[in-house]
Design goal:
The chain is α+β, with helices and mostly antiparallel strands and 93 residues long. The protein contains 3 helices and 4 strands; from the N terminus they run βααββαβ. It has a 4-stranded antiparallel beta sheet with strand order 2-3-1-4. The longest helix is centred in the last third of the chain and has 18 residues. It is elongated.
Length: 93
């Protein structure tokens, strides 16, 4: 079993309320959590309105599949998030 952890920092410039933060980040958990090989959660920046950090844990029998899913997550985030994707950290276990 191969496991990858992807941690993504997202800047939300101009975000002024928790409601707006949820709207701008809306659907991240649902969009990526549908895949049984991916676990997702908001892992940091809970106390800030203008930032968010998300972690994705990807598990598969082949390392290429883990790499492929991590790349797919990165691409979808860049296209769909209403904010600036900043630092992306990828770890392998």
């Amino acid at each position: 079993m191969h496991i990858g952890i992807l941690t993504v920092s997202i800047s939300l410039p101009g975000c002024r309320s928790l409601k707006e933060k949820r709207q701008r980040m809306g659907g991240v958990h649902e969009r990526f959590g549908r895949n049984p090989a991916v676990a997702v959660c908001e892992s940091g920046e809970h106390d800030r309105l203008d930032a968010s950090e998300w972690s994705f844990v990807v598990a598969a029998h082949e390392s290429q599949k883990v790499d492929s899913l991590c790349s797919e997550i990165e691409e979808k985030l860049l296209k769909t998030v209403d904010g600036r994707v900043g630092e992306i950290i990828q770890q392998r276990l």
